[in-house]
Amino acid sequence: MWRLTVSCLSLLGYSVCSIIPRHETQGTSVLLACSIASIEGKSVEWRGPYQENTLYAESNYSNTNLPDDLHDRIFVTGDHGNGHYNLRIVNAQISDEGLYRCSVQNGDIIRIFNLTFPALLTSTDASYNRYILIDSEMQKLFVGQMNRLNIIELSDVVYPVNPRIIDFQPEQDKLDYCVLSNSRTPYCQNHIRFITKKSTDKLILCGTNANSAKGYELNVTDMTYSSSVVPCSNDPFDNFTALYAKSPNGGEIMYYASTSHTESTIQRPIPGTTDYMKGVISEKWMKDPQFVGSFDVDDRVFIFFRETAVETDPDEKKIYSRVAKVCKHDIGGNSLLRNKWTSYQKARLDCVIPGHIAKDIPVRFDSIRKY
Length: 371
Description:
This is Semaphorin 6. The protein has a seven-stranded mixed beta sheet with strand order 1-4-12-11-6-7-8, with no helix packed on it. The protein has a four-stranded antiparallel beta sheet with strand order 13-14-15-16, with no helix packed on it. Strands 17-18-19-20 form a four-stranded antiparallel beta sheet, with no helix packed on it. It is mainly beta. The protein folds into two domains: 2-116, Immunoglobulin-like (Sandwich); 131-363, YVTN repeat-like/Quinoprotein amine dehydrogenase (Methylamine Dehydrogenase, Chain H). It is built from two helices and 30 strands. The longest helix is centred in the middle third of the chain and has 7 residues, at 172-178. The chain is 3% helix and 43% strand.
């Protein structure tokens, strides 16, 4: 939370202040403090922006005529005996923006707050926010956009935010070729679709690079980057997931799930070679998948995605949510299965509501998504 110091004047025994800006984050709990030396039997009122200067609370009671969604989030806290009548707004929403006035019953205003929820990043042009990574160790927020990466220091955020920007323009030859069959924007740009942490000071990024996907390894210390072999998605609207998982041979190794030029699969580098473990390119393995997330669990890696179901009537074109699994020890088979997953399995993602009298009730969320 961020506050600005303001000057106050003593007027008729009350502390009368100018408007106090308050920049907060949506979804947090906001406390607006108001202290009165003596109210001499008069009640304290809080008025807010709903329908312009509506009564929110009087003394320690909130206005029951407010909409339930607002009334249930407003509380008057503090030591009332000593004149502390603080307004707390829980789960603050964009609709809560505006002026809040603390006053005594006769109308003398004690404090006025201007509550806002400013954006960390703003742009007059289409920026296509693609991926967000928050790193608590580095105290940084990384935002992947079209043709650039924004880095915001979280240890001391001051508005307006001035992020550090690293440009990732598409390679010119790839751009020239891409525009022959696609629109320049957004398809023939370099959308940073994925960011993950490789080590304490290194990130792996994936960019679409004008329909010729490319990976990058970024040194966060000096902000330099080099090419990295990452089989990313080439389409700016295809989802991609990857993670570093513990390797049975020690260290960590990266697993990818992506779609590149209509071929969708899960991949993992084969140590000591330039080859990858891959899945069989077949609609039975996955059809038009949109990958959501990946997780390292013991000796397996799980990939969550949604896809077009092939076990239903093709005319219906139903979307199912899936979870797929590959084993870390999988080295493939012989002949046609060389460097192909032999441990690959997938299942429809089902949830249940526990039943008390009847059986458990199945619940299916068939459009699993990121965030």
